[in-house]
Write a structure and sequence with these properties.
Length: 658
């Protein structure tokens, strides 16, 4: 008996589905691209439960001829090409004839379509590969495709789908790519009967960039354009002050199709060489128009990878276009000086980045007046001998030392499990009384290393026998101290990051992170995908003392923050957290790994920065805390915190031996 057998059409389609239909977002991509090829001017996408239950695409395109309905769900049947030669001059989004047959094999599919010259439409149903003959049906001009119970007959694939919010994030990303490549298209995206995006036709791509990525990013985009040897490049690139840790916001479009290409990405990186920090990636939205015969799009079933006839020419053109534009501009970063001490602005190093949304001034003033009255009452009751007590029941931590020569007032804090309403305002500033500066909240003062003390029950280490260390700060980055064996050069950021990590970790694990509520929650705008990822992990973020809630579409509200991050820019913090979550999406990180990554990141945000000048008191406080952590030799990322040089080596270098 022969061991080689020809596979059935059903098995072949299931195999093809594994390549083309990876998740609900793949279905949306393939069907919307079909609508584009049908010359639709309006496309509506309805999603239920992240696409696992229902995906519905409605367009006003040319429709499907009744005689072609059965062929539409037949493997390798297409109207896009006729011969192999046409593969090298493809001008449509689809051409392989695999997607519809694959979708029909793993879902319950219904197609309704009517052409302009037809009196009525036709309906075709396919249940998990079983085709029902087409029947007449009433429907408007165009095509309606509905997919239910995706992967119903492939339970393994269905089991590996992520949560509805995560899957919808991928769908939103596919929607974004198509909307950017086709700004003249009217597009609507709904999830669970809720409108997420309704995009009117426009001639300007920048309008959609502002809608999807926010005004903050759109304002820092630089328009570029180049044309050479029949190749036109145009689009927008980010100001060098605008960068990301990943390539997530590098969008490359080739003849209207979103692609990924290492050559073009490398050219983009080279264009920013010397303008970005190592490890940071530029933001770009670039469109390339090239003769179809000079590129091969038949590389992968998803049509994301392509091969260029002359990749080096494109590399040089892209590099030259961006570099030439940069040479003609003043690339100095512009930061906004804070004009208001109210909520809605995040502070970083004394500079401010205004939040996308503002609070009603009358409402804010009323809240501030109420808080000022409360603060003045507390100040009258407070004496240096009897400072206000912390809310939590833990033993009080060591008192905060002076901060830039000013004493600090312990803020009323709360643990992650027992939150108490509080405001992120300095009482003295709200009251307008200079004499209250001594009672200033730590959230409005400079950094104090002693704000992050060790566990209360851990005894202080005995001082070194040769006396207190004599430290010198150089380049506002390194601390040089004398040791019994010679000398040590300490990286102030790396050391403080380890201290903050050791301070923060046991409190997170015990659910006792001190957090402070905002009187007015701070809005943060993200992409739909990033917002979905943050909402999905908000329980984990709550353990870190960060309160997140939904606020419509792709906007989140921060209602509380960890006290240890009082000086952090909350808007940028949430965006960085979303970017970190997005970079790990799809890799299946465990909850423990994710928590550890978040701890690393927040410790880094809270630590003193390289380039920050410290007072002698702050240096002493930082050095004292070295002895309170288990591993003061390395930061949480593995970098050394100090380099030691022995006295013997110093004597040898200066010729003092013998």
């Amino acid at each position: 008996m022969s061991r080689i057998q020809q596979l059935s059409a059903s098995v072949i389609n299931k195999i093809a589905a594994g390549e083309v239909i990876e998740r609900p977002a793949s279905v949306v991509k393939e069907l919307v691209e079909n609508s584009l090829d049908a010359l639709a001017t309006r496309i509506e996408v309805d999603i239920v439960a992240g696409g696992a239950e229902v995906i519905r695409i409605v367009d006003d395109g040319e429709g499907i001829h009744p005689d072609d309905l059965l062929l539409a769900v037949t493997s390798h049947a297409t109207s896009k090409i006729r011969s192999a030669d046409e593969l090298f001059s493809v001008q449509t989004m689809g051409f392989r004839g695999e997607a519809m047959a694959s979708i029909a094999e793993v879902s319950r599919l219904r197609i309704r379509s009517r052409q302009a010259d037809a009196e009525h439409g036709m309906e075709l149903k396919v249940d998990l590969g079983a085709i029902t003959p087409p029947t007449p049906a009433g429907c408007p001009l165009g095509t309606q495709i509905e997919i239910r119970n995706l992967f119903e007959n492939t339970p393994v694939r269905r089991k590996f789908l992520k949560s509805p919010s995560t899957e919808f994030g991928h769908i939103s990303e596919q929607f974004t790519r198509i909307a950017l490549a086709n700004p003249r298209l009217h597009m609507v995206l709904r999830h669970n009967d809720k409108v997420v995006y309704e995009l009117s036709s426009t001639q300007r791509v920048i309008e959609r960039l502002e809608l999807f990525f926010g005004a903050d990013i759109a304002e820092q985009l630089i328009e570029v354009e180049s044309e050479h040897n029949g190749v036109r490049m145009w689009g927008y690139v980010g100001h060098p002050a605008l960068s990301k840790a990943t390539r997530k916001q590098q969008y490359l479009f080739l003849n209207g199709r979103w692609i990924q290409d290492r050559t073009l990405q490398h050219a983009l990186t080279e264009a920013y060489r010397g303008l970005l920090m190592v490890g940071r990636q530029p933001i770009a939205f670039l469109f390339i128009e090239i003769p179809p015969e000079t590129v091969d799009v038949n590389v992968h079933p998803t049509k994301i990878e392509v091969r260029f006839q002359d990749a080096q020419q494109l590399f040089r053109q892209l590099l030259s276009m961006i570099r030439s534009k940069f040479l003609s501009l003043d690339l100095q970063s512009q930061l906004k000086v804070p004009t208001d001490s109210g909520a809605g602005s995040g502070t970083t190093g004394g500079l401010s980045f205004t939040a996308p949304r503002t609070v009603d001034p009358a409402e804010q003033q009323a809240v501030q007046r109420e808080f000022v009255e409360w603060a003045q009452t507390r100040l009258k009751e407070w004496t240096p001998d009897a400072p206000p007590q912390l809310v939590d029941e833990e033993p009080a931590a060591a008192p905060m030392l002076s901060n830039y020569g000013r004493s600090t007032w312990p803020v009323q804090t709360t643990t992650a499990g027992d939150a108490v309403e509080n405001g992120r305002f300095a009482a003295g500033e709200l009251a307008g009384e200079p004499e209250n500066r001594a009672a200033e909240s730590p959230s409005r003062t400079g950094w104090s290393p002693s704000a992050a003390v060790s566990e209360p029950e851990r005894p202080l280490a005995a001082p070194a026998p040769f006396g207190p260390p004599r430290a010198l700060q150089i380049h506002d980055c390194y601390l040089v101290i004398e040791t019994a064996e010679g000398m040590s050069v300490i990286d102030q950021h790396a050391l403080h990051e380890r201290i903050m990590y050791e301070y923060f970790r046991p409190r997170v694990l015990a659910g006792k992170v001190e957090s402070q509520h905002l009187l007015v929650p701070q809005p943060v705008e993200l992409s739909a995908r990033e917002a979905a990822l943050v909402i999905e992990q908000r329980e984990l973020l709550a353990r870190l003392g960060l309160g997140i809630e939904e606020f419509g579409k792709d906007t989140l509200l921060v209602n509380r923050y960890p006290v240890m991050l009082a000086k952090a820019d909350l808007t940028q913090l949430v965006r960085d957290l979303a970017e970190m979550l997005d970079s790990g999406a799809g890799q299946g990180p465990t909850r423990r790994d994710l928590l550890d990554e978040l701890l690393h990141m927040m410790s880094c945000k809270a630590a003193v920065k390289a380039g920050q000048r410290l007072t002698p008191e702050e240096i002493d406080s930082l050095l004292e805390q070295r002895h309170l952590v288990d591993d003061a030799h390395h930061c949480p990322h593995g970098r050394p915190t100090a380099l030691n040089l022995s006295r013997a080596e110093l004597d040898r270098q200066f010729g003092r031996l013998g």
